[in-house]
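MODEL INPUT / OUTPUT PAIR
PAIR INDEX: 1
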Amino acid sequence: MIAYSEVSAFTSTPGQGNRAGVVLDAADLSDAEMQALARFLEAPETVFVTRMGGGRVRVRYFTPTQEVVFCGHATVALGLMLAQAGYWRGEALELETLAGRVPLRLVSEAGVPSQVWMRQRRHETRPLAPAYRARLAEALGISDRLIHRGLPMASASSGLWSAFVPLLDAVILDSLEPDLPAIEGLSRELDVGSLYAYAPMGVNRFAARDFAPLLGIPEDPVTGSSAGALFGLLAQHGRLPVRGGRAVGVIYQGHAVGSPGEVEIEIEVQGTNVVAVHVGGCAVLDREGHWRRGL
């Protein structure tokens, strides 16, 4: 029997935010067994710990249909479970992922873990040709006149690639009627994992929705990896206030699927260069269980 936890990340309310499966002892599981357990849990992503020790934790991430190189909300969920299980008390800790090494930081209040922060991998961007604007809008079920011309439309990654599409406001964002087959085709064509629509709610606050049918996730409730990539993109384009070489903000996501959550982001910048991307949030345990191998 394999012990697992189901955790809601980027929220302090069970059942909201984004659900992740967490398996702290997966050293003896095969690739096929990890995939089977992820499919059994049906969480957007499940994280498996395959080795732990010396301040490092080796992990792998699976959606219900395939392995992915990184997942932000599952990383926050894992950090909480490591702390609650007594494996981590706030000392330096680094995850070894297929996307690279990811340092974690634990925030506690009155001795109780309250937030997990991660430093995501190197921020990268790729331009999106203006000719894609109409196709992206059509895939989202809107006119291209509703795409914000003053915010960046591009592909970016700080762990997992997404195509970012800015909209004029959150009302438009909430009214999207996505064509998932079209989004899947565009994601494959652009070599990204998801199509991430976002809209401004203030100078450093944004609402977002993330569609990832190519990864087997029609709409991801709250996406930590893409949140970091977006803020890196915004900082790179001078669209965030910067003080002391840092830009901070919040992304609100999940309302459209009845599972709201908040992602906090801090970007270190030098001029227009993104030096580091930090993403953090709360998490709460939903339930625990055991999976019988061979099911």
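PAIR INDEX: 2
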Amino acid sequence: VRSSAARRRFARDKEVLKSLGISIEYVPRNSLDTGGYYIRRESFAHPAIHLTAEHRRLLACLHTTAALESNSPVLGPLLSALQKLRFDDTPYDVPRTDDHLPVFKLGADEQPSVRANLAALINAARACKIVTFYYHSMHRDDVGRRAVEPYGTFLREGKWYLVGRCTVKQAIRLFRLDRIMTQVQVNRGNPGRADFKRPRGFRLKKYLGVLPWEKGPKPETKKLYDAKITFDDEVWWMARESLAASTCRVSAKTGGVVVSMPVYREEPLIRWLLKFGPHAVVTSPKRLRNLLIDTVKKIRQRHT
């Protein structure tokens, strides 16, 4: 710290931290360390918070209700509280049980059209009424009309999804709400009477943890391989949120974790891994590792 004013400010900051009960450790400079002041995480971090399934469902209901009403006085404080809670949600070393259901997720603010369609779809799912809309299919890159029996909605990675039976495909499908190109139309015929019945044994949570690379474009698509990826401690908290309900297997190692996951599609996994930079390393297979390296090279060439 060079100037006397900066030194005084630094000293004041240390005293403030100490007054809050935060321990500051000084490490002299040596051949292995540049030296300086350190704050160990365990000296100030709160213990992990483990929510029961009932508590998580209650928070999910509060979040959904408040988000649908943009003028809600509880929306700001509620989002702030959930933002803090999500960092300690579902530790990787705790067995996945009903107490760790992926009920609520936080994401970016929804577009007005998404917000309006979400409200319509929630009401239609409750009343079991068929909905129609025009949908942009990324797989075929076209827009077509859909008639769907809505079973439920969920929020994942900042995007709202509809789970329902497509009457054209005669199968249950996922629809991302920001790809719905028109206002959702709810069948107004036979008011007060259901248009359909949900399949016996249907559970929305089955679809919460399905990641893009863990399923193929068609039900008969075969798995390519199992990939092993090592995440260091700096980014594991972020990766863990995405993988909370995945079918992957996690094992701890010094300085990070190793994740083994099934891969049906490589492109979405590559896109996801890129955001972690050098903090995520593909251990196997070599094919995936080389594909990730080639993708990084192409990005660099494009921007140089």
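PAIR 2 NOTE: The mean pLDDT is 79.
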